[in-house]
Amino acid sequence: MIFKTASHAFRTAIKGLSLTVKHLFGARRSRQELNIKNDNYFDHQEGIVTVQYPAEKMPIPEVARYQLQVDIDDCIVCDLCAKACPVDCIEIEAIKSPEAIGKTSDGSVKRLYPAKFNIDMAKCMYCGLCTVVCPTECIVMTNEYDRSSQKLTDLIYGFSDMTDEQVAQRKAEWTQFQAEKEAAKQK
Ligand code: SF4
Ligand code: SF4
User: Fold this and answer.
1) What is the pLDDT of residue 59?
2) Which residues form the 4Fe-4S ferredoxin-type domain (predicted)?
3) Which of the listed residues 28, 68, 100, 144 has the most CB atoms within 10 Å of its CB?
4) What is the mean pLDDT of residues 67-91?
């Protein structure tokens, strides 16, 4: 019995030691950078996993969901993305225009100015719903993931390209348009 136990302990120790030695030699080099789409991705798991970031970066899948980006020129300020967001991290303020103000790259007519278009990436849960509902496909998830910051407020991304003066001017134009419309009705 004692020989059997000793033999088992010896074999177990050898197995554990061989695993340690294997990783010891493997740790002399970094793990090969491979795209996850590679057929042999799981055959190359030896080596140091930690990468020397930012000098080195791990390859990421093309369909990964990372930082959101909005092409504001193609946005019709419809608010659908904000309504679809389950955590309310998109804040949009629109200003109506008395007339069409242009077209997006897919031909959609723009009638609203984006006075405010903020996305709080600290609250975002990367579900991608906002990108699915966007009629002009101007809000997308990019493969950019390294915008870390020590201040939470830095993670509120602003996409509106309007200045305070422009916002005030457009609001005044809309107020005047409404007033003229009312006055015309009274006549
Ligand atoms: S990815 Fe999801 S949580 Fe993030 S802003 Fe879009 S809808 Fe909201
Ligand atoms: S759904 Fe698209 S077009 Fe509509 S407000 Fe959001 S980003 Fe703009």
Assistant:
1) 72
2) 66-95, 115-144
3) 68
4) 97
